[in-house]
Write a structure and sequence with these properties.
Blueprint lengths: L5 E5 L3 H12 L3 E6 L11 E5 H10 L2 H7 L1 E3 L1 E5 L5 E6 L11 E5 H15 L2 E4 L1 E8 L4 E7 L11 E5 L1 E4 L6 H5 L7 E13 L7 E5 L5 E6 L4 E9 L11 H9 L6 H5 L9 E9 L5 E2 L2 E3 L5 E2 L7 H16 L7 H31 L6 H11 L5
Parallel strand pairs: 1-2, 1-12, 2-8, 5-14, 12-19
Antiparallel strand pairs: 3-7, 4-7, 5-6, 9-10, 10-11, 13-16, 13-17, 14-15, 15-16, 17-20, 18-19
Helix pairs in contact: 1-4, 1-8, 2-8, 8-9, 9-10
């Protein structure tokens, strides 16, 4: 019996968890290391999952849990700041007709579902740990695994091990990306987003987006029978100038000028600890997403502002495509990894560019921007398999 190939996955978010499950299903030996000792299972408010993300979640075997935990819907509304509905656009079912166009859900719930799938796969998991690339050659990579910044089960003594492949799924600030000599860094787009989870008003059954008013964009997404997450987007500010204790006040100040469902939502923006403030950032690594036997997936390779809600979807697609290639008949060499890049860049680049353009129109004050048209053109492309 041949010894299975060994893979180290660095990072246990959507991309890292998905590729771990898929490779374990194919019989590969997979270790996953995650810097957060809590596996990032409580952070975040909500997430919008469109059909192309749902298609991968179905491949992972977790669709039933996702469907039961979230809120499915099939359209998006464009409103005036006072809540007047200006346009309702039916969403494309980018995952196929058998899946909803969109599911909103609480982000911690999605993470717990993915954690369960990784655990069930039999992968070896080390939390509160980091991985440092020591050396590599044409056949493998030597790695040192040690305690991360918050300890956890990664706090045991450092270990060194050789793997046939390392998959860097360690996010936007990927230290692995820098360690293998890829100089690309995320860049701010000029916008920032305030997010909060809140009760869902009766009658709110889809995402509505208001452009204009005191913020560039104000929107919400239902995440369950009684929950939603809401967000407002403004020009980014120096984070140090915004005391953490004022986060609820700042978001409420922006939100209170919007009509429709917003007055009921705004009543619940009271706890600053429940409000998240994040800058929009852009990243797209060009040329290749690998160096030798280390390959990037997800936010480590690309990141787009959430104006099209495609960040998690693109990361999940990366995992699906890379796992298909790694479990095929081709050797693990530069040709395979470049094929992965070429297959993904043709899809990722237009989504990143469209996501940035939607925000730039707001920053530039373009009043006749074709927001619904750009959304529709981009999402039409995503109906095809990645």
């Amino acid at each position: 019996m041949s010894t299975p190939r060994t893979v180290l996955v660095i990072g246990g978010g959507a991309a890292g968890s998905a590729v771990t499950v898929l490779l374990r299903r194919a019989g590969l030996a997979v270790d996953l290391v995650e810097a957060r000792s809590d596996w990032n299972a409580t952070a975040g408010s909500g997430i919008t999952l469109q059909g192309n993300a749902l298609r991968v979640l179905r491949e992972l075997g977790v669709w039933d849990e996702v469907e039961a935990s979230g809120f499915g819907f099939g359209s998006v509304g464009i409103t005036a700041p006072d809540g007047t509905v200006l346009h309702v656009q039916e969403d494309l079912r980018t995952g196929g007709d058998e899946l909803p166009a969109t599911v909103g859900m609480q982000r911690p719930r999605l993470q717990r579902i993915l954690i369960g799938a990784v655990r069930a796969s039999g992968a070896s998991v080390r939390l509160g740990a980091t991985a440092e690339i020591l050396d590599q050659d044409a056949d493998g990579v030597c790695v040192r695994i040690g305690a991360g910044p918050d300890g956890g089960s990664g706090a045991r003594e450092d270990t060194e091990r050789r793997y046939d492949l390392v998959i860097a799924a360690d996010g936007l600030g990927s230290t692995t990306r820098a360690a293998i000599g890829i100089a690309d860094r995320p860049e701010p787009t000029g916008m920032a987003i305030w997010r909060i989870a809140a009760p869902r008003p009766a009658g709110l059954t889809r995402t509505d987006l208001a452009y204009g008013g005191p913020a560039y964009i104000a929107g919400y997404c239902p995440t369950g029978d009684s929950t939603l997450y809401a967000y407002v987007v403004e020009a980014n500010r120096d984070r140090a100038s915004i005391p953490a204790g004022s986060h609820a006040d700042e978001m409420r100040r922006l939100a209170r000028s919007y009509g429709g469902f917003w007055p009921e939502i705004t009543e619940h923006i009271t706890d600053p600890a429940q409000v998240n403030y994040t800058w929009f950032e852009r990243l797209l690594v060009e040329g290749s997403w690998h160096r030798g036997r280390v390959v990037l997936i997800g936010d480590a390779a690309h990141c787009c502002p959430p104006t099209l809600a495609q960040g998690a979807a693109l990361s999940l697609e990366d995992a699906w495509v890379l796992a298909q290639l790694l479990t095929g008949a081709d050797p693990w060499d530069d040709t395979l990894f470049q094929a992965y890049y070429e297959r993904r860049i043709a899809r990722v680049r237009p989504v990143v560019e469209a996501s940035v353009q939607l925000g730039q129109w707001q920053l530039d004050g373009v009043r006749d921007a074709d927001v619904p048209g750009l959304m529709a053109r981009t999402m039409t492309m995503l109906r095809e398999l990645p």
